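Open question from group meeting: does this chain pack into something compact, or does most of it stay loose? Before anyone orders reagents, we agreed to write out a predicted structure and look at it together. Recording both the input and the output here so the notebook holds the full record.
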Amino acid sequence: MSANEPLLLRTREGHVEILTLNRPQARNSLSEALLQEILGAFRAIETDDAVRAVIVTGAPPAFCAGHDLREMSTHRDDADGGRAYFERIFDFCCEVMQAVTASSKPVIAAVNGVATAAGCQLVASCDLAVAEPEAKFCTPGVSIGLFCSTPMVPLSRAVAPKHALEMLLTGDMIGAEDAQRIGLVNRVADPGSALNDAKKLAHHIAGKSAKAIAMGKRLFHAQQTLPLAAAYAEASRVMTANMMERDACEGIGAFLEKREPKWEGL
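Structure tokens returned:
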């Protein structure tokens, strides 16, 4: 990889935006500059109505090896031992992960290799994940004296508590099939097919109503923290608002008339 090559590759296939982490020599670790590129991409995508689904993947041989520990370690020589920088970079990474989750567009991880620490956090922050059979996942912080506290947040929301804690407390690597079993991954693709399978899934979703998906995704995350009655009340409110949208009128009409719907923007 040349010094002039972008840290994040952006390609468009129809209504699907593909983001490729492009630091293969560093196993696509999340340097501060790469985090800035990811955040910038998601901010741009959010205002681009032509994008209806997003895929995040890594330039081979890895998906993402987490934070750039070499870059972080240089700040040990700062006057405060690196505290200010560590606080800033962890806060910034959390901002990036929240932008992924909060995006109104469905985000699919195409995991083509190891996804460790903040790389595993990125997978858990995405809405869906498709993995190569040889993909591996772990939160290995405990092995270097650093509990994976920030990766814990989306991981503990993606899988059952005991599965999350086993990964966090042992730091052990798990394979793609185990990741699917515990709910971190939706599908395990045939060898070499994760990105293609993710594209098929993304294009399938992109053919649905973008307005309904945006409203539904936002509600999905909001209602998870609410008591049951409050969750139902919010869901009822959103569903009523959704019914008033043009796409709902078109979709219901198409169903009753036994024809294909014509969604807004397609």
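Observations to bring back to the group:
The two ends are 37 Å apart (CA to CA).
The chain has a mean pLDDT of 97.
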